[in-house]
Protein: DNA-(apurinic or apyrimidinic site) lyase
Organism: Endosaccharibacter trunci
Amino acid sequence: MPEGHSVRRLADAFVARFQGHRVAASSPQGRFADGAAIIDGLTLSQVDAHGKQMFLRFGNEAWLRVHLGMYGMWRFHGEGLAGFGRESVVLSDASAPESYPPAPVGAVRLRLDTGRNIADLSGPSACVLMTPPEHDAFLAGLGEDPLREDADPAKAYAKINASRMPIAALLMRQDIVAGIGNLYRAELLFRARLEPHKPGRDLTRADWDALWRDGGELLREGVRLGRIVCTRPEDRPKRKGPVRREDSFYVAHRAGLPCRICGTPVRSETMAGRMLFWCETCQVG
DNA sequence: ACAAAATGCCAAC
DNA sequence: TTGGCCTTTTGTT
């Protein structure tokens, strides 16, 4: 259940543990048996995260595109796996040799095994092989990812500023901005004090620049922490230790609760099939 | 224990 | 607009 920060962390895990290694590929569940046979025995040569999409290149010709959707997850087994949080990354230790390699848990679409590390993929909404031209075409349809060095926020603004759609809907469109999901959109708009229904064409360039910058900072913090924390320290209860989940958001999942800043009950409604949360007092820009 | 919701998206109606 | 994907998390008994 990731937004862009989780996918980036997963990509980092694959770079550290799998890139440059030859992998045995299989599909315990069976639904990816044909694809697994194609990449079986090839070397993982490149790893790329773009928004919520992760791409793994095997040999020279085969790109695997994985999108976790709402339910997908990678479960890792093997060595040296400290340092990860949870989100969609579940790690288990291989300290007991007699139980290694472990049996797949649940419906595992794809297992990648270097001999030292195993990655099990279950529940993805996409797990498909692409040729290099198909990969290029797919990338061309993806929006700007604030976590990427090559991102160009002006390209995203051009699309936003040309649209009558509400900014809260535009932020979710992965062909405009890649990596923002339902939690980040609600929280970013709150932090920017922007009214979610404001049409994209009414957003000033200054509005957008601030939104983009804040989005990049929040996503990078998400990569660092392994979870989404959007409240500023001064706006949440002071306590030691990790920020509690219920203290992590201004408006997301807080429908009916008092706004942290002004006390007005947080509003919610469905927009583009997802629940939108906002404060009608604070978000008037 | 069990039920419902969830950080997403697509195909089908 | 709805169902499906398939799992974990969260809340309610």
